[in-house]
Amino acid sequence: YEEETRIKTAEYETTQNQYAEEIATLQGKLDKVASEDRSREIESKEWEEAIKLSKEESQKLQEEVERLELALKNSKADCEALQSEMEELTQAFDDTTIREKQESDGQHETLKELLATRSREVEELKEEMNNLADTN
């Protein structure tokens, strides 16, 4: 009976040792899976944070693009207004130049006529003086 109990105890201990090894193996695998799961969770959170930051940066860039597009639109409108104003000023300058030239040409003609008239009057006065001198 003792021999049988020792055999059973030895078998029990062997089985218990096998179970303990299997439990240790399974516990190691479980720890590895849990560690990998934590690593994936941490990596997932890091990716989520990176995506969040990327979306925020993208939003900021989109807002900057919209501001720049508005500035460009305003700048184009200002440029068109300035070009229109410049054309008006150029036309006004050309009109003024033409008018001044015409006035100058008119004044020149008037001066020529006045000079011609004065020259005739001087000649007439000379003739009268000569005539008066001859009659005296």
Structure description:
The mean pLDDT is 92. The protein has one helix spanning 2-135. The protein has 136 residues and is mostly helical. It is 99% helix and 0% strand.
Helix percentage? over 70%
- Structure summary, number of beta strands: 0
Percent of residues in beta strands: under 5%
Mean of residue pLDDT values:
92
Main sheet, how many strands, which sense, barrel? none
Which consecutive residue ranges, at least 5 long each, have pLDDT under 50? none
N-to-C series of helices and strands: H
* End-to-end gap: 195 Å
Helical segment count: 1
CA radius of gyration: 57 Å
Outline: rod-shaped
Label this structure with key terms.
single chain, mainly alpha, 136 residues
Helix/strand layout:
Elements: H1 2-135
In short:
With 136 residues, this protein is an all-alpha fold.
